[in-house]
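=== RUN LOG ===
request id: a7f3
mode: sequence -> structure
chains: 1
length: 123
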Amino acid sequence: MHRVIENINIVRLFSFTILMGVFLSANSNSEYLPAPIPIDFGVNNGMRSDSTICESCNISYDADTMGAACCDEATQFNSDFTCEVLETTYLWNCSGCACAEDDENWTTSFGCQEDMDYLISRR
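=== RESULT ===
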């Protein structure tokens, strides 16, 4: 009986290790992340108000498909779509974006928000 319990514990540990490996690899390799969800901002937003609004963002999306070219543009269209909401609910990558509507303590889940953060972390 003791040997059976020992084998069950080994199987549990092995299963946990495999699941953690899958979870960590999905979060560390962007190619395995789920695709971001498009947002319909309405037909009146077809014209872009400022072509430079997405310059700081690390990821640019196809505005026709996603509804906005980046998180900052989505926030400009509707202030309810903060970078935090876009990342957690719609799986958008807001790294590098200004994220002016967000709390100053918020940080992106996709790495450094600004180039200087990356440079400082490399020292």
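=== NOTES ===
Helices lie at 2-28, 63-66, 71-77, 83-90, 115-121.
The radius of gyration is 20 Å.
=== END ===
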